[in-house]
């Protein structure tokens, strides 16, 4: 018993339905979007057979959609990268499913191994690259769905349609 609190729950909490949050069909918070990504990452049978590796262009597949959000599966052969880009009004969760990716921002560079997650807010700018010698797979949740992906270069901004 926690002697620091006067609050105690007597009886079966599951019998008091009005005190419980109803289970949500779709994620609605940052933690729930990150949790959705982790649950998909753990369910390899759901995505592993879909992955293709394309050395000539970036491969991507929309795995799931829900109210206001999209989930994309991407592959990266060694040397492939996104270029420096933003995500418009979307926030997102990047999760590495297989292999290793490198994320570069103006703040520096970080290595993202399988299982690593990065949560970002609208306005976040980064570059994702497979600097390793093995292919990599990543999962990207966007809320709201990605409608623009401005590319950032030293002199200008352009628009890209590939989710990253
Ligand atoms: Fe991105």
* Average pLDDT: 90
Order of SSEs: HHEEEEEEEEEE
Number of strands: 10
Largest sheet features: 5 strands, antiparallel
Distance between the termini: 48 Å
Percent of residues in helices comes to 10-25%
What structural class do the secondary elements suggest? Answer: mainly beta
Q: What is the strand content? A: 35-45%
Number of separate helices: 2
Going across the biggest sheet, name each strand in turn: 1-2-8-3-6
The value of Rg in angstroms is 19 Å
3D shape: elongated
Q: Regarding quaternary structure, how should these chains be classified?
A: single chain
Bound compounds, each kind once, are: fe (ii) ion
Describe the fold and architecture.
The chain is mainly β. It contains two helices and ten strands; from the N terminus they run ααββββββββββ. The chain has helices at residues 30-42, 44-47, and strands spanning 59-66, 69-76, 91-98, 100-105, 108-113, 117-120, 127-129, 136-143, 149-152, 157-160. The termini are far apart. Fe (ii) ion binds next to loops.
In short:
The protein is mainly beta and 164 residues long.
Per-chain topology:
Layout: H1 30-42, H2 44-47, E1 59-66, E2 69-76, E3 91-98, E4 100-105, E5 108-113, E6 117-120, E7 127-129, E8 136-143, E9 149-152, E10 157-160
Antiparallel strand pairs: 1-2, 2-8, 3-6, 3-8, 4-5, 4-7, 9-10
Bound molecules: fe (ii) ion.
What keyword list fits this structure?
single chain, 164 residues, mainly beta, three-stranded antiparallel β-sheet, 2 helices, 10 strands, 36% strand, elongated
């Amino acid at each position: 018993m926690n002697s620091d609190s006067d609050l105690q729950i007597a009886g079966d909490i599951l019998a008091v339905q009005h005190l419980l949050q109803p289970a949500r069909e779709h994620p609605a918070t940052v933690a729930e979007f990150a949790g959705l990504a982790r649950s998909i990452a753990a369910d390899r049978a759901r995505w592993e057979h879909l992955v293709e590796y394309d050395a000539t262009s970036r491969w991507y597949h929309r795995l799931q959609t829900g109210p206001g959000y999209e989930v994309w599966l991407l592959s990266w052969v060694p040397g492939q990268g996104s270029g420096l880009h933003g995500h418009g009004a979307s926030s997102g969760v990047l999760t590495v499913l297989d292999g290793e990716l490198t994320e570069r921002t103006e703040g520096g560079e970080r290595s993202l191994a399988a299982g690593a997650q990065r949560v970002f807010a609208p306005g976040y700018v980064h570059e994702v690259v497979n600097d390793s010698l093995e292919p990599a797979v990543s999962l990207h949740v966007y809320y709201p769905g990605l409608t623009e992906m401005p590319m950032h270069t030293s002199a200008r901004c352009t628009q890209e349609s590939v989710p990253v």
